[in-house]
Amino acid sequence: MSDQFVVLSGDFVTIKITGSASDFTSERRFPKGMTIFELKSKLELVTGCSCSTMTLELYDTEDKLVCTLSNNDAMLGSYPVEDGMRIHANDPASKGAFDFAAAGASADGKPLYTMSDEEYRKKGDTFLQFKKANKLGEFAKVDPEAERKNREAEAEEKALAETFTVGSRCEVSVPGQASRRGEVAFVGQTSFKPGWWIGVRLDEPFGKNDGSVAGKRYFQCPPKYGGFFKPKDVAIGDYPELGLDELDEI
């Protein structure tokens, strides 16, 4: 077998950050498993741009535009981001606001109006209300018991995944779907979803990919023969390829 046991852990990327609201450059390290929405929330404090109206552009090390990070639900690692690249946060609504504020005046030279905290809290279209509605920042509820259970579940999933060996025969049994057989081709974490995954090279073309997702390859197989499954849904054993008669019964 040419495949090797692969485990991805601590998948981070170090990138430069710039923003339209101020003239600065900052270098930060982010996990590739975070969503673009989570990234925007963190960059709000760094760039001064509003999370609700912010757009993100990815530039390569030659400062050429690669793409726009437009899907809030997508993970950072699903885009071709690498160390040394630059992400620019653009927010036309706040462009130049920091410069004007520093001078104590607005763009037309008039004194800036300062809103009291009480007035700001009463307004219904502010980022404060946005954070309240989405339980972000200081409004995020932390449940210690839920966090403990999540950590335990992650540890159990990791321990189970590490019992799998690339090249082993297996059977996949996902609730609500017919069982499929194949060969373990990947074990580890991915950039497209958090947690631990088992990549399976299926015997029949009932999969969803060719061993790659969002441009990142995890193993090799023909199109429709690859799939990623949770460790609990995969069983290792002496599972020979099904004959035509058996396939007809399935």
Summed up:
With 250 residues, the chain is α+β, with helices and mostly antiparallel strands. It has helices spanning 36-47, 97-103, 117-122, 127-134, 144-161, 244-249, and strands at 12-19, 22-31, 55-59, 65-68, 86-90, 169-172, 180-189, 196-202, 212-213, 216-217, 226-229, 234-236.
Give keywords:
Ubiquitin-like (UB roll); SH3 type barrels; 250 residues; disordered N terminus; 2 domains; alpha+beta
Description:
With 250 residues, this protein is α+β, with helices and mostly antiparallel strands. It folds into two domains: 12-110, Phosphatidylinositol 3-kinase Catalytic Subunit, Chain A, domain 1 (Ubiquitin-like (UB roll)), CATH 3.10.20; 160-249, CAP Gly-rich-like domain (SH3 type barrels, Roll). 23% of the residues lie in helices and 26% in strands. It is built from six helices and twelve strands. It has a five-stranded mixed beta sheet. The protein has a five-stranded antiparallel beta sheet with strand order 11-8-7-6-12. A hairpin with a 5-residue loop joins strand 3 and strand 4 (65-68). The two termini are 29 Å apart. Mean pLDDT is 81; it is low at 1-10 and 95-107.
